[in-house]
Amino acid sequence: MIKLAKIISTTPGIRYHIEHGLALHENIYRYSSKEFVNLFFEARLLYNAGKIDLIEADIDLITTTDIGEYGVYEGKQIPLDLPMATEAKYQGKDVDLNKPKRGGAVVKNSTFTYEILKLRILKKFLLVQKTVGVI
């Protein structure tokens, strides 16, 4: 959970997380969107200035990764520490991301997206944190 250490003006994203008791890793924005990255950028600035308090898992994200920062690759500005994939494995099978598939006993569409990968990455990260005893 994010808590303000001092009264300051913040962006709506940080304010929403504070008002609803959400941790930074429970980011409300679409994975890899500009606002997703900006939330981490602002949180890093506020944390380094001592103006917000974060839980241990969020402190680890802020201090050990470059999430929220940008770099330049082949002349384009790209967000750092955001894994991107075009292929993934699901239940041991190769699947293409963002391409609907039909199949199964009940006919339905299923699309593997970055949102699904984001949730899986965060779950694994939190599981490691719990195993190590950080949270």
Please describe the topology of this protein.
Elements: E1 3-4, H1 12-19, H2 34-48, E2 52-53, H3 56-64, E3 70-73, E4 76-79, E5 87-90, E6 93-96, E7 101-103, E8 108-110, H4 114-132
Keywords for this structure?
135 residues, alpha+beta, 2 domains, two-stranded antiparallel sheet, two-stranded antiparallel ribbon, 38% helix, 19% strand, globular
Characterization of this structure:
The structure is a single chain. By secondary structure, this protein is α+β, with helices and mostly antiparallel strands. The chain has 2 domains: 3-81, no CATH class; 83-135, no CATH class. It has 4 helices and 8 strands; from the N terminus they run βααβαββββββα. The chain has helices at 12-19, 34-48, 56-64, 114-132; strands spanning 3-4, 52-53, 70-73, 76-79, 87-90, 93-96, 101-103, 108-110. Strands 1-2 form a two-stranded antiparallel ribbon. Strands 3-4 form a two-stranded antiparallel ribbon. A two-stranded antiparallel ribbon has the order 5-6. Strand 7 and strand 8 form a beta hairpin. The chain is globular, with a radius of gyration of 17 Å. The two termini are 12 Å apart. Mean pLDDT is 74; it is low at 105-109.
